[in-house]
Amino acid sequence: MLDNQCFAVFGVLANNNSGAQSQKKLTGFWLFTQPSGILLQNKLFQDMKRFQLVLILLLFCCFQAVYAQAVYPVSITTHSTPPHSGTLADWTVPGSNRIGATLLFLDAFEPSYQVRLKISIEGQGIQIHSSETMLPRPITLHYGVPRQITGAELAEYLQVDNLVFSGISRQQYIGNGTLPEGFYTVCIQAFDYDRSTEKALSLPACTGIFYQRLDPPVVVIPNTSVAVNTPQNFSVQWQPRHGGGFVPDYTVQLFELTPEGITPQQILQVNQPFAVHQVTSSNTTFFNAIDPQLVPGRSYMVRVRVTDPTMKHLFNNDGWSEPVVFLYGESCPVTQGLSCINITQTSARLNWSPRAGHPDHWVVRVREAFSAPNQWYEYPTQLPSLNLNDLDEETQYVVQVKTLCDGIAEGLYTDTI
Asked: What's the whole-model pTM score?
């Protein structure tokens, strides 16, 4: 007997009362019952509908997985780690890990496969992508084994000769040395190594890069001069301009501006700092008695550098402020009142006017009038006079004097007499 029995096949809900047997079509099923049978309850219909939906979703997901693997046998994920500069070569510095990718080969029927990559960069109205003519080194993938691609391995892809520029010319980029500040999307895609113009082996995998250089600090103290204190104690202060977001580290460098007439740029190239302070968080530091002692009357230069200890930000001028030149104490004046008296065939006496209330020293230099300009004989003295003896007869001499203010700071030499 077929009473209370039913069986189902896929179909569509409808009614057909022809014949001795009634036939009902359900959405997704054909349902047959005997005339004497009992119709299924509403709950059975609802369970069947749920079953149908789950079955369809499972079939769809399986189909999608198989289809995706068949169409794209390579899966790529990309990553980027700030800070980023606008110079492409900086992204690929070995060990920096500024940009990279992971490739996974999904085709179980191929134990290994050689691919090449194509890179695109887009942002700020600029589009840059890999040239079709470049010949990179092949990347060998093995089924199921992730292949890490470091920034250093991407270096050849980001060389300017291997890129096509739009929105900015290659010459403009080289001339500027950097891309404009802003947000850029970097995408990487895999291709068959020998058939790179054919269909891609992967979907493009993208990562975002935000490039912005922050401003360095500005030195506000000292300005042009620093008063001499005993013991030594003076401050250097600066104004941060990078905004918030991290606790900065600062480096303060102090240089002696010697030799005379040298420029700040030349100082940075040839001289080592006279003193260095490392500062965290604060925008002030003090040079005191435990630091190298500055000489009154001499010129010095100070500059400050900001860095981000989290290494997520870059700065203009590598974080260095503009250098500030200042005079420590007062400049030592030129010796006044130089005269020569009691002149004989072999001797003479020099006199000059000392500064009242200052324990100055002096340096006298003498040479024959017609000798080489640098053939001086120097005579240090702590008195405002000097006797010159053992001079050659019938010989002309020239003399100059300079003051060592307070026995330390050097003044300029007087005119010759």
From this structure: 0.54
